[in-house]
Amino acid sequence: MGELSIKIRISDRDYPMRVDASEEERIRIAGKLINEKLKHFREQFGIDDKQDLLSMTVFDAVMEKLKSDQTTTDNESIVQYKIEHIDRILSEALAY
Q1: What is the predicted pLDDT for the residue at 96?
Q2: Domain total of the chain
Q3: Are 40 and 34 contacting, i.e. CB atoms less than 8 angstroms apart?
Q4: Spatial separation of the C-alpha atoms in residues 27 and 20, rounded to whole Å
């Protein structure tokens, strides 16, 4: 699709970037979510320091990523167990 030149505003600062057209919407959504999280922390904790707000936002995002990764790993383990269980049942049924 080609590259686009866009600007994403995060914490009152513009960040110009070149992105694949197919990724533009996802990048804009990410910028919006970052700004929403910054606003949330500003309102919840009464913090105005941008570096502190950005640090808290990054920390929160990494914690969510780790939680998501763990959930994915847990789900993969469950699926693997169920596949092995079904395979044993089918193997036993076909052995007769």
Answers
A1: 78
A2: 1
A3: no
A4: 10
- The segments of the chain whose pLDDT lies below 70 read 1
Q: Say which amino acid occupies 35.
A: N
Half-sphere exposure of 4 (CA within 13 A, CB side): 12
Domain range for 22: 3-71
The model's pTM is 0.77
Let me know: does 9 contact 15? Beta carbons within 8 Å: yes
The string of DSSP codes covering 41-96 is: HHHHH----HHHHHHHHHHHHHHHHHHHHHHHHHHHHHHHHHHHHHHHHHHHHHH-
User: SS3 of 2, please?
Assistant: coil
Examine residue 33 and state whether it is found in any structural domain, yes or no.
yes
Dihedral-angle region of residue 9 (phi above 0 means left; psi in -120 to 50 means alpha; beta otherwise): beta
Q: For residue 31, what are the contacts with CB-CB under 8 A and spacing of at least 6? A: 8, 9, 10
